[in-house]
């Protein structure tokens, strides 16, 4: 279960046992990690990468469901990302049972990220740890709390997206309408106002934080379902474009990265098989 | 002297109860505002249109977990380093999952309630309580993290009491948790919160459910 990349130090051994974003921010975890790689000159990549189930290989070259093609193109300064973390994807109930029986999952649930000698479960806990460790949680307690508030709100919205593929097809259309309404009436106006009033490039403290990563992920995931969802939010449109140009985020959004494609029927089927068969 | 934190919520447990517990554990007195006047007093302050809302240190905080994290940090109940904080986050996320199941049940249909409560007790006995029993047994310390009282202990204590309201004997197979409950329950601030006259709220009844439904319109 623990894959150890040759050449990386033991502190960089990150094992991720993941299950499909039945919860939030998985791709956010990856994006977060990528934002920090430049600071981590060793490339020893304390880069846990919680991921949506979708790809069935540890190497991008063997992931038919990935958007990507070709070898990674990250500059050397960022370290060799592909060796800096490992992933284990759940495909069978037996795998999950093994993880549970061997005591790797505190509450018998995934995602689980093994890093720095800990087996972390609970999405928020993992996201907070990565953010704290890699300076994406503000400069003081007040900034941290603002980031926390924004993240919690955005996760509420993201969760509806994550649950959407598991609804009956007949309910999905209605759910999409409700989701769009929630985003447009409740959440996006808040962030539009924050950006408009501050005139800054990020939500909190004029620097990139967990709040920006989670919001970007949510916006992009919503746009996949509802392409016009940002049409009434010019500040969010600019914000999305600007964030997407940050080199580490840009790479994550490019083909060949660890970012997972939208959930498809195979993904839903596998989730049911692992949990319910 | 700093102003008391102001809590805006319904007159019942809901998502505010964990916050009340944490403030009580920290020995902080609060000023509570009930939900009827919600629109008047909270207009413009509810970030995503939702309560709980806590006014503290010049900020209007919403989002339960964000509020709890802030309070834990402010009152030194969040561990002494990043790893301890991560453990506390992990444990409180787990107990919150359990408590949210209990909080949601009064709002489900009457035919489902009994079954839901039985499932919750089962989950407590097979998933959550064994995990914490193991933690306490593993290090043999009085508290869950770093040998010091923290937010994780407050919330586990609260979760135990909530499940005991559904099944009084639920701790019968968990000696560590029984001892933990007795220890934590004896701490002065916790003891005070358990006594009549504190800010602690009773379990949801039909009236509470009706008020929440009316105000939130669902």
UniProtKB/TrEMBL annotation, chain A:
One example GO MF annotation: glutathione transferase activity
GO biological process: glutathione metabolic process; xenobiotic metabolic process
Ranges for domain GST N-terminal: 84-138
PROSITE patterns, sorted: GST_CTER, GST_NTER
Domain (GST C-terminal) ranges: 140-263
The organism's place on the tree of life at top rank: Eukaryota
The EC number(s) this enzyme carries: 2.5.1.18
Keywords associated with the record: Transferase
Family according to the record: Belongs to the GST superfamily. Alpha family.
This protein's name: glutathione transferase
Lineage of the species this protein comes from: Eukaryota, Metazoa, Chordata, Craniata, Vertebrata
TrEMBL record, chain B:
Record's keyword terms, sorted: Transferase
Organism superkingdom: Eukaryota
The keyword Transferase is assigned to this record: yes
GO MF term set: glutathione transferase activity
Record EC number: 2.5.1.18
InterPro entries (UniProt xref): Glutathione-S-Trfase_C-like, Glutathione-S-Trfase_C_sf, Glutathione_S-Trfase, Glutathione_S-Trfase_N, GST_alpha, GST_C, GST_superfamily, Thioredoxin-like_sf
Gene3D superfamilies registered for this protein in UniProt: 1.20.1050.10, Glutaredoxin
Residue ranges of domain GST N-terminal in the record: 3-79
Reaction it catalyzes: RX + glutathione = an S-substituted glutathione + a halide anion + H(+)
Listed PROSITE patterns: GST_CTER (PS50405), GST_NTER (PS50404)
Alphabetical list of Pfam families matching this protein: GST_C, GST_N
Domain GST C-terminal: 81-204
GO biological process, one term: xenobiotic metabolic process
Family matches, as PANTHER family: GLUTATHIONE S-TRANSFERASE, GLUTATHIONE S-TRANSFERASE A4
Annotated family: Belongs to the GST superfamily. Alpha family.
Name of the protein in question: Glutathione S-transferase
Species this chain originates from: Dipodomys ordii
Organismal lineage: Eukaryota, Metazoa, Chordata, Craniata, Vertebrata
Gene: LOC105987713
